[in-house]
Protein backbone atom coordinates (compact mmCIF):
# COMPACT_ATOMS: atom_id res chain seq x y z
CA UNK A 1 0.00 0.00 0.00
CA UNK A 2 1.56 3.25 -1.16
CA UNK A 3 0.22 6.49 0.25
CA UNK A 4 2.00 9.84 0.27
CA UNK A 5 1.59 12.35 3.07
CA UNK A 6 3.20 15.46 4.53
CA UNK A 7 5.23 15.62 7.73
CA UNK A 8 7.49 18.00 9.58
CA UNK A 9 10.95 16.41 9.47
CA UNK A 10 13.92 17.43 11.61
CA UNK A 11 17.31 16.68 10.07
CA UNK A 12 20.83 17.04 11.41
CA UNK A 13 22.99 18.84 8.88
CA UNK A 14 26.52 20.11 9.57
CA UNK A 15 25.97 19.92 13.33
CA UNK A 16 22.77 21.95 13.03
CA UNK A 17 19.16 20.82 13.19
CA UNK A 18 16.95 21.91 10.33
CA UNK A 19 13.15 21.59 10.18
CA UNK A 20 11.21 21.34 6.95
CA UNK A 21 7.94 19.92 5.65
CA UNK A 22 8.59 16.90 3.47
CA UNK A 23 6.55 14.37 1.52
CA UNK A 24 6.74 10.89 3.01
CA UNK A 25 5.16 7.52 2.23
CA UNK A 26 3.51 5.19 4.71
CA UNK A 27 6.20 2.66 3.85
CA UNK A 28 8.56 5.01 5.75
CA UNK A 29 6.60 4.44 8.96
CA UNK A 30 7.60 1.80 11.53
CA UNK A 31 5.79 -1.50 11.89
CA UNK A 32 2.67 -1.49 14.05
CA UNK A 33 -0.85 -2.81 14.50
CA UNK A 34 -2.66 0.41 13.62
CA UNK A 35 -2.28 2.81 10.70
CA UNK A 36 -3.92 6.08 11.77
CA UNK A 37 -4.78 9.12 9.71
CA UNK A 38 -3.98 12.05 11.97
CA UNK A 39 -6.65 14.73 12.33
CA UNK A 40 -5.00 16.79 15.06
CA UNK A 41 -1.85 16.91 17.15
CA UNK A 42 -0.61 19.45 19.68
CA UNK A 43 2.65 21.16 20.55
CA UNK A 44 4.31 20.27 23.86
CA UNK A 45 7.63 21.35 25.35
CA UNK A 46 9.01 17.85 24.74
CA UNK A 47 8.15 18.28 21.04
CA UNK A 48 10.04 21.56 20.97
CA UNK A 49 13.07 19.83 22.48
CA UNK A 50 12.88 16.99 19.96
CA UNK A 51 12.49 19.48 17.10
CA UNK A 52 15.63 21.34 18.18
CA UNK A 53 17.89 18.29 18.39
CA UNK A 54 17.78 17.40 22.06
CA UNK A 55 19.37 13.93 22.15
CA UNK A 56 17.92 13.33 25.59
CA UNK A 57 14.49 13.21 23.95
CA UNK A 58 15.24 11.89 20.46
CA UNK A 59 18.31 9.81 19.77
CA UNK A 60 18.29 9.53 15.98
CA UNK A 61 17.53 11.94 13.15
CA UNK A 62 15.90 12.54 10.67
CA UNK A 63 12.79 12.44 12.81
CA UNK A 64 9.16 13.61 12.93
CA UNK A 65 8.18 14.84 16.43
CA UNK A 66 4.69 14.99 17.94
CA UNK A 67 3.93 13.10 21.16
CA UNK A 68 0.16 13.66 20.78
CA UNK A 69 -2.22 12.38 18.10
CA UNK A 70 -5.94 12.09 17.56
CA UNK A 71 -7.21 10.52 14.37
CA UNK A 72 -9.03 7.75 12.56
CA UNK A 73 -7.92 4.14 12.15
CA UNK A 74 -7.22 3.35 8.48
CA UNK A 75 -6.08 -0.26 8.88
CA UNK A 76 -5.93 -2.53 11.92
CA UNK A 77 -4.45 -5.97 12.56
CA UNK A 78 -6.00 -5.98 16.03
CA UNK A 79 -9.47 -7.23 16.98
CA UNK A 80 -9.68 -4.40 19.49
CA UNK A 81 -9.81 -1.69 16.80
CA UNK A 82 -11.66 -1.39 13.52
CA UNK A 83 -11.34 0.79 10.45
CA UNK A 84 -13.02 4.12 11.17
CA UNK A 85 -12.47 4.08 14.94
CA UNK A 86 -11.61 7.49 16.39
CA UNK A 87 -8.58 7.12 18.67
CA UNK A 88 -6.14 9.03 20.87
CA UNK A 89 -2.43 8.20 21.07
CA UNK A 90 -0.25 10.11 23.53
CA UNK A 91 3.25 9.59 24.92
CA UNK A 92 4.87 6.12 25.12
CA UNK A 93 7.58 6.47 22.44
CA UNK A 94 5.42 8.39 19.96
CA UNK A 95 7.20 11.48 18.66
CA UNK A 96 10.34 10.69 20.63
CA UNK A 97 12.00 7.86 18.72
CA UNK A 98 8.93 6.80 16.74
CA UNK A 99 7.56 9.03 13.96
CA UNK A 100 4.97 11.21 15.65
CA UNK A 101 1.91 13.36 15.22
CA UNK A 102 3.53 16.10 13.15
CA UNK A 103 2.90 13.82 10.19
CA UNK A 104 -0.47 13.15 8.54
CA UNK A 105 -0.16 9.40 9.23
CA UNK A 106 1.33 7.34 12.06
CA UNK A 107 1.67 3.61 12.62
CA UNK A 108 1.75 2.38 16.22
CA UNK A 109 1.23 -0.70 18.42
CA UNK A 110 -2.39 -1.27 19.49
CA UNK A 111 -1.38 -0.93 23.15
CA UNK A 112 -0.61 2.76 22.62
CA UNK A 113 -4.11 3.69 21.44
CA UNK A 114 -7.37 4.30 23.26
CA UNK A 115 -10.78 4.92 21.76
CA UNK A 116 -11.99 8.50 21.91
CA UNK A 117 -14.26 8.78 24.99
CA UNK A 118 -17.81 10.02 24.62
CA UNK A 119 -18.00 13.70 25.42
CA UNK A 120 -14.86 14.70 23.54
CA UNK A 121 -14.27 15.46 19.87
CA UNK A 122 -10.95 14.65 18.21
CA UNK A 123 -10.20 18.37 18.20
CA UNK A 124 -10.99 18.81 21.89
CA UNK A 125 -8.87 15.80 22.81
CA UNK A 126 -5.80 17.47 21.29
CA UNK A 127 -6.48 20.83 22.90
CA UNK A 128 -5.98 18.70 26.02
CA UNK A 129 -3.36 16.19 24.80
CA UNK A 130 -0.51 15.06 27.05
CA UNK A 131 -0.86 18.30 29.01
CA UNK A 132 -4.46 17.39 29.83
CA UNK A 133 -3.49 13.86 30.81
CA UNK A 134 -0.70 15.19 33.05
CA UNK A 135 -2.96 17.82 34.62
CA UNK A 136 -5.64 15.18 35.20
CA UNK A 137 -3.18 12.80 36.85
CA UNK A 138 -1.98 15.64 39.09
CA UNK A 139 -5.50 16.63 40.12
CA UNK A 140 -6.40 13.01 40.82
CA UNK A 141 -3.40 12.62 43.15
CA UNK A 142 -4.28 15.79 45.05
CA UNK A 143 -7.90 14.69 45.41
CA UNK A 144 -6.72 11.55 47.20
CA UNK A 145 -5.25 13.73 49.97
CA UNK A 146 -7.13 17.04 49.72
CA UNK A 147 -10.85 17.03 48.90
CA UNK A 148 -10.79 20.84 49.17
CA UNK A 149 -8.37 23.66 49.91
CA UNK A 150 -6.02 26.30 48.52
CA UNK A 151 -3.83 24.95 45.73
CA UNK A 152 -0.84 26.65 44.11
CA UNK A 153 -0.05 25.95 40.44
CA UNK A 154 3.38 26.90 39.08
CA UNK A 155 4.11 27.48 35.40
CA UNK A 156 0.54 28.70 35.33
CA UNK A 157 0.34 29.94 31.73
CA UNK A 158 1.80 26.72 30.27
CA UNK A 159 -0.25 23.81 29.00
CA UNK A 160 -0.27 21.70 32.17
CA UNK A 161 -0.53 24.75 34.41
CA UNK A 162 -3.46 26.39 32.62
CA UNK A 163 -5.39 23.12 32.36
CA UNK A 164 -4.75 22.34 36.04
CA UNK A 165 -6.09 25.74 37.08
CA UNK A 166 -9.24 25.29 35.02
CA UNK A 167 -9.92 21.75 36.33
CA UNK A 168 -9.20 22.64 39.96
CA UNK A 169 -11.45 25.70 39.82
CA UNK A 170 -14.20 23.61 38.24
CA UNK A 171 -13.93 21.19 41.17
CA UNK A 172 -14.24 23.98 43.74
CA UNK A 173 -10.63 24.45 44.85
CA UNK A 174 -9.19 27.89 45.55
CA UNK A 175 -6.36 28.27 43.03
CA UNK A 176 -3.27 30.46 43.27
CA UNK A 177 -1.32 30.90 40.04
CA UNK A 178 2.48 31.27 40.17
CA UNK A 179 3.81 32.76 36.95
CA UNK A 180 6.60 34.88 35.55
CA UNK A 181 4.08 36.47 33.19
CA UNK A 182 2.25 38.97 35.38
CA UNK A 183 0.81 40.56 32.23
CA UNK A 184 -1.35 37.42 31.86
CA UNK A 185 -3.28 38.05 35.10
CA UNK A 186 -6.61 38.47 33.30
CA UNK A 187 -6.07 35.24 31.37
CA UNK A 188 -5.21 33.29 34.52
CA UNK A 189 -8.19 34.71 36.39
CA UNK A 190 -10.46 33.79 33.47
CA UNK A 191 -9.29 30.17 33.90
CA UNK A 192 -10.33 30.23 37.54
CA UNK A 193 -7.33 31.47 39.53
CA UNK A 194 -8.20 33.82 42.39
CA UNK A 195 -4.68 35.07 43.09
CA UNK A 196 -1.42 35.57 41.16
CA UNK A 197 2.03 35.36 42.72
CA UNK A 198 5.04 36.52 40.71
CA UNK A 199 7.47 33.68 40.03
CA UNK A 200 10.33 36.13 40.52
CA UNK A 201 9.09 36.98 44.02
CA UNK A 202 8.36 33.35 44.89
CA UNK A 203 11.77 32.18 43.64
CA UNK A 204 13.67 34.15 46.25
CA UNK A 205 16.14 31.65 47.68
CA UNK A 206 15.69 31.05 51.41
CA UNK A 207 18.01 29.01 53.59
CA UNK A 208 15.17 28.29 56.01
CA UNK A 209 14.12 24.63 56.04
CA UNK A 210 10.46 25.68 56.36
CA UNK A 211 8.50 28.75 55.31
CA UNK A 212 5.11 29.96 56.48
CA UNK A 213 2.40 27.52 55.38
CA UNK A 214 0.20 29.32 52.87
CA UNK A 215 -1.05 26.51 50.59
CA UNK A 216 -2.85 23.25 51.27
CA UNK A 217 -1.30 21.70 48.21
CA UNK A 218 0.42 22.44 44.92
CA UNK A 219 0.89 21.30 41.33
CA UNK A 220 4.45 22.05 40.24
CA UNK A 221 5.38 22.10 36.55
CA UNK A 222 8.66 24.01 36.91
CA UNK A 223 11.05 22.32 39.34
CA UNK A 224 14.14 23.96 40.79
CA UNK A 225 13.83 26.78 43.33
CA UNK A 226 10.09 27.17 42.73
CA UNK A 227 9.53 23.56 43.75
CA UNK A 228 11.86 23.93 46.73
CA UNK A 229 9.84 26.87 48.04
CA UNK A 230 6.53 25.16 47.35
CA UNK A 231 7.62 22.18 49.46
CA UNK A 232 8.46 24.58 52.30
CA UNK A 233 5.19 26.52 51.99
CA UNK A 234 2.55 23.78 52.15
CA UNK A 235 0.49 23.34 55.29
CA UNK A 236 0.40 20.31 57.57
CA UNK A 237 -0.79 17.11 55.83
CA UNK A 238 -0.59 18.79 52.44
CA UNK A 239 0.55 17.40 49.09
CA UNK A 240 2.59 18.47 46.07
CA UNK A 241 2.60 16.86 42.61
CA UNK A 242 5.75 17.15 40.50
CA UNK A 243 5.77 16.88 36.71
CA UNK A 244 8.29 19.30 35.20
CA UNK A 245 11.87 20.54 35.27
CA UNK A 246 11.94 23.51 32.90
CA UNK A 247 13.29 25.61 35.79
CA UNK A 248 15.82 23.00 36.87
CA UNK A 249 16.07 19.27 37.44
CA UNK A 250 18.05 19.90 40.63
CA UNK A 251 16.31 19.90 43.99
CA UNK A 252 17.96 21.25 47.15
CA UNK A 253 15.79 20.81 50.21
CA UNK A 254 15.61 19.08 53.57
CA UNK A 255 13.47 16.36 55.10
CA UNK A 256 11.70 18.85 57.40
CA UNK A 257 8.62 19.52 55.24
CA UNK A 258 8.05 15.78 55.10
CA UNK A 259 8.66 14.84 58.74
CA UNK A 260 7.41 18.00 60.48
CA UNK A 261 4.39 18.72 58.27
CA UNK A 262 3.65 15.24 56.97
CA UNK A 263 3.98 16.45 53.40
CA UNK A 264 3.18 14.01 50.59
CA UNK A 265 4.99 14.40 47.26
CA UNK A 266 3.81 12.63 44.10
CA UNK A 267 5.81 12.24 40.90
CA UNK A 268 3.64 12.36 37.78
CA UNK A 269 4.67 10.17 34.82
CA UNK A 270 2.23 10.52 31.94
CA UNK A 271 4.58 8.88 29.43
CA UNK A 272 4.35 5.34 30.80
CA UNK A 273 1.03 5.58 32.64
CA UNK A 274 -0.81 2.26 32.19
CA UNK A 275 -3.85 2.09 29.91
CA UNK A 276 -6.42 1.52 32.67
CA UNK A 277 -5.36 4.76 34.38
CA UNK A 278 -5.30 6.60 31.02
CA UNK A 279 -8.84 5.51 30.24
CA UNK A 280 -9.97 6.64 33.69
CA UNK A 281 -8.36 10.08 33.37
CA UNK A 282 -9.60 10.62 29.81
CA UNK A 283 -13.09 9.62 30.93
CA UNK A 284 -12.97 12.28 33.64
CA UNK A 285 -11.61 14.88 31.19
CA UNK A 286 -14.53 14.11 28.89
CA UNK A 287 -17.12 14.55 31.64
CA UNK A 288 -16.84 15.89 35.20
CA UNK A 289 -13.42 17.50 34.77
CA UNK A 290 -13.94 18.82 31.25
CA UNK A 291 -12.11 22.19 31.36
CA UNK A 292 -14.50 24.10 29.10
CA UNK A 293 -12.78 27.48 29.41
CA UNK A 294 -9.56 26.07 27.93
CA UNK A 295 -11.37 25.27 24.68
CA UNK A 296 -11.70 29.01 24.02
CA UNK A 297 -8.09 29.81 24.91
CA UNK A 298 -5.83 27.97 22.46
CA UNK A 299 -3.94 28.71 19.25
CA UNK A 300 -4.59 26.63 16.12
CA UNK A 301 -1.91 26.20 13.46
CA UNK A 302 -1.06 23.89 10.56
CA UNK A 303 2.22 22.19 9.70
CA UNK A 304 3.42 25.41 8.07
CA UNK A 305 3.21 27.32 11.36
CA UNK A 306 4.92 24.73 13.52
CA UNK A 307 8.57 25.76 13.21
CA UNK A 308 7.91 29.35 14.24
CA UNK A 309 5.71 28.23 17.13
CA UNK A 310 8.42 25.83 18.32
CA UNK A 311 10.92 28.70 18.50
CA UNK A 312 8.44 30.80 20.47
CA UNK A 313 7.86 27.95 22.92
CA UNK A 314 11.59 27.48 23.49
CA UNK A 315 11.81 31.23 24.18
CA UNK A 316 9.03 31.00 26.78
CA UNK A 317 6.62 33.08 24.69
CA UNK A 318 3.72 30.64 24.35
CA UNK A 319 0.75 30.58 26.69
CA UNK A 320 -1.89 27.87 26.90
CA UNK A 321 -2.23 25.12 24.35
CA UNK A 322 -1.26 24.97 20.67
CA UNK A 323 -3.45 22.77 18.45
CA UNK A 324 -1.93 21.44 15.22
CA UNK A 325 -4.42 20.64 12.45
CA UNK A 326 -3.15 17.95 10.08
CA UNK A 327 -6.13 17.37 7.77
Overview of this protein structure:
The protein contains nine helices and 15 strands. The chain is of the alpha/beta class and 327 residues long. The protein has two domains: 4-116 and 297-325, Medium-chain alcohol dehydrogenases, catalytic domain (Quinone Oxidoreductase, Chain A, domain 1); 133-267, Rossmann fold (3-Layer(aba) Sandwich), CATH 3.40.50.720. Strands 3, 4, 5, 6, 7, 14 and 15 form a seven-stranded mixed sheet that branches. A six-stranded parallel sheet has the order 10-9-8-11-12-13, with helices on both faces. Helix 2 crosses helix 3 (159-170). The model has no long low-confidence stretch (mean pLDDT 95).
Summed up, what is this model?
This protein is α/β, with parallel strands linked by helices and 327 residues long. The chain is built from nine helices and 15 strands. It has two domains: 4-116 and 297-325, Quinone Oxidoreductase, Chain A, domain 1; 133-267, 3-Layer(aba) Sandwich (Rossmann fold), CATH 3.40.50.
The CATH architecture classification of the largest domain is: Alpha-Beta Complex
* Number of helices, where a helix is a run of at least 4 consecutive DSSP H or I residues: 9
Secondary-structure element order, N to C: EEEHEEEEHEHEHEHEHEHEHEHE
Distance between the termini: 20 Å
Mean pLDDT metric: 95
The residue ranges in which pLDDT falls below 50 over 5 or more consecutive positions are none
CATH class category name of the largest domain:
Alpha Beta
Helix amount? 25-40%
Oligomerization state: single chain
Number of separate strands: 15
- Our Rg estimate from Cα atoms comes to 20 Å
Q: What's the structural domain tally? A: 2
Major sheet description: 7 strands, mixed
Q: Which homologous superfamily in CATH is the superfamily of the largest domain?
A: Medium-chain alcohol dehydrogenases, catalytic domain
Helix-and-strand structural type? alpha/beta
Assign an overall shape. globular
Strand content: 25-35%
The CATH topology of the largest domain is given as: Quinone Oxidoreductase, Chain A, domain 1
